[in-house]
Amino acid sequence: MHSDKSIGTSRRHFLSRGALYLASATGLLANTPAKPVLRIGLLTDLHYADKPPRGSRHYRDTLGKLAECVERFNQSQIDFVVELGDLIDKAPSAAVEIHWLREVNTAIRKANAPVHYILGNHCVSSLTKEEFIHHSGCNPQTYSSFDQGPFHFVLLDACFTSDGTPYGRDNFDWKDASIPPQEIAWLQRDLASTDKPVLIFAHQRLDPHGAHTIRNAAAIREILERSGKVTAVFQGHSHANDYAFINGIHYCTLVAMVEGQAPEQSGYGTLEIFSDQSLRLTGFRKQTNLDLDRHP
Hints:
- By secondary structure, the chain is α/β, with parallel strands linked by helices.
- The protein has a single domain, classed as Metallo-dependent phosphatases (Purple Acid Phosphatase, chain A, domain 2, 4-Layer Sandwich), CATH 3.60.21.10.
- It has six helices and twelve strands.
- It has a six-stranded mixed β-sheet. A six-stranded mixed β-sheet has the order 4-5-6-7-9-8.
- α3 crosses α4 and α5 runs parallel beside α6.
- The longest helix has 19 residues.
- The N terminus is likely disordered.
C-alpha cells in the first residue's frame, strides 16, 4: 500500500492559490488535445424541497438554478449527466418526498442526454433506496458501471452504515457512511474486468475529510490504487470546492447547488475527457475550474 503523504500539500495548493496554481503544482496539461472524446455534465447536492430556506440552504431556488444548469449542459452537447447525490431534501413524509423527487427529476431530465444519479444520504431521508430508484426511474440499482467511448465509469453507493445496513427511513447517521463487503467485492471484480481508464463517481468523500469521508475510505482508496486504472474520483457531500491528489488519483469535490440564493450562488460544471486521459472541469457560478493530467 502506498503512503498518503501527498494529500496535505495538494489540498493547500488548491485552497491557497486556486485552480491555476493547482495546474502547475501537479504538472498539468501543457498540450491537451484540442477536442474532447467525451463531455459530461456534473452537479451535486441540489437538496430540492418546497420549504423555506434554512441557513445558507435555499431549497426552493434549486429548480431555477437547475434550469440554468440544464440549459448550459444542452448548449455544451454533453454525452451524459451525473448528479452526485442529495438530489432532494428531507420531507415530512415519504409521499411528500416522492412529490419533490418527481418535480426535480422532471427538471433535470430536460437535459438532452442520459442522467445518472448517485445516492446521497438525503435522497433516502424518508424514502427507501428502492422507492428512490422506482420514482426517479433512474439507475436499476444503487451501484453500477458502464463503458462509454474509450472509458469506464463507476457509480458507487456509500449509503450504508458501518455494519452494512442500508440507509433509508431515517435509520442512519450521516457521519456513519460505508461501502459494504458485497459492494467492495463487486468493485474489485469490476475494476479487474476492464482494460479501460476509469472514473469514479460517489456522494460521500473517499479522500480524508473528517465526518464527510466514508468510514472505510482508506480500504477503498487502496483498491482503486492497486487497479492502476483509476484516473479520478468526483464526489460531493461537503458542499464546498476541494481537491486532493493521493497516490496517482485525483479526488475532486464539487460545490453544492443548494447553497445561497439563485442564480449567482449556484454551482455545476462540464467535465471534458481527452484521448490522453487528461480531464478538464469547466466550472460555472461557484464551481471551480480544474485541469487534471493522467499522471502528474
